[in-house]
Amino acid sequence: MNFLLRLAVLFGCLFLASCDGDPYSGFGCIAPESHPAVAHARSLTTKQLETIYSETQKLSNTLVPESYKAQFMKPEIPETLNFLSAELIRVYRSEGPYIILANCFDERIELRVSASGAPVKRITLSWAEPTNENPYATGSQVLWETNNDA
Fold first, then answer.
1. Domain ranges of the chain
2. DSSP code at position 80
3. Where do runs of H (alpha helix) occur along the chain?
4. pLDDT < 50 positions in the chain
5. How far is CA 40 from the centre of its chain?
6. From 92's CA, which of 26, 57, 58, 60 has a CA 20 to 30 Å away?
């Protein structure tokens, strides 16, 4: 019994240390619309959003023919996108790139970028908006869009 008590205390300490009072980081974090990364994304200028679109399309063009996706971690993200403070960028052959601004296990703050061949160039912000019926529901907002002719 003493072993189980010690184990419980150890896990409790680890849990408390990882949360450090910030609901937006660490174990058990959340990624709702009130997350600071949502406010940061909404504050991006049109020029920054255009840069996001063009730079992620360049990353998409780096996919080798045998690959269906590529992933770029913080150190690999181009310097031209440093203003995003992104954790990760993923590009897929079959769909547009997406950028993870904050990652809380199964909840994320993301920017989804339309694929280069889509009729509309678009960047959509999404966040977690779980309900009792659907714990994986998300909210979203289009931050930027223009015709692909432009």
1. 1-29, 31-147
2. G
3. 2-19, 36-42, 46-60
4. 7, 9-20
5. 12
6. 26
Closest to 108 measured CA to CA, from 89, 133, 122: 89
Task: Tell me the two tokens of residue 20.
Answer: 């450090």
Q: What is the distance between the alpha carbons of residues 113 and 144, in angstroms, rounded to a whole number?
A: 10
CA distances, 50 to each of 5, 70, 113, 122 (Å): 55, 21, 11, 10
**Which pairs from 77-80 meet CB under 8 Å and 24+ separation?**
80/51, 80/55
Q: In whole angstroms, what is the distance from residue 91 CA to residue 107 CA?
A: 19
Give rounded-to-5 percent helix, strand, coil for the chain. Answer: 35, 30, 40
The predicted-structure confidence for 52-66, as pLDDT tens digits, reads as follows 999 999 998 888 777
